[in-house]
Write a structure and sequence with these properties.
The protein is an all-alpha fold. The protein is built from five helices and no strands. The two termini are about 20 Å apart. The mean pLDDT is about 80.
Length: about 140
């Protein structure tokens, strides 16, 4: 059973820290992505961030040690934070003035609820099936 053996001799308590690390990197990248997207363009930044998210998921899912896993999760956190920021800014720039407030409010509420539900279900999956299934 998965509960009786720990991969890499790391306890479940240490692996449970990863959702907190992702949230920390989401916050950091929200601050940084705005400045970078102003200089390099929003669409090009969006493309880079989507590829970054794919690389982070691939690295985390195929990790052979805890350090490789941690690096992958850091990359995922930075990509999610950047996407959150870029989506809101692109919505505000492309929507009509009358719809901006409502659209941004809905986008922020849905994204926040989505992140919260992902963390909840990810921890449930990790406890029952192991951390690699949490990548799905």
């Amino acid at each position: 059973s998965y509960h009786q053996s720990c991969e890499w001799q790391v306890s479940h308590t240490i692996l449970a820290i990863e959702p907190t690390a992702i949230i920390a990197f989401i916050g950091i990248s929200c601050f940084v992505s705005g400045v970078i997207s102003d200089k390099c363009g929003r669409k090009s930044c969006m493309t880079v961030v989507v590829y970054m998210l794919g690389v982070g998921v691939a690295v985390s899912g195929t990790a052979t040690c805890i350090y490789q896993y941690a690096v992958g999760r850091m990359v995922i956190g930075m990509a999610i934070g950047s996407l959150f920021n870029l989506c809101i800014v692109m919505w505000m720039e492309s929507s009509p003035i009358r719809m901006r407030k409502c659209g941004v409010l809905v986008l922020m509420i849905c994204t926040s609820l989505g992140h919260a539900s992902i963390v909840f279900f990810d921890t449930q999956i990790m406890v029952q099936y192991g951390w690699r299934w949490g990548m799905l």
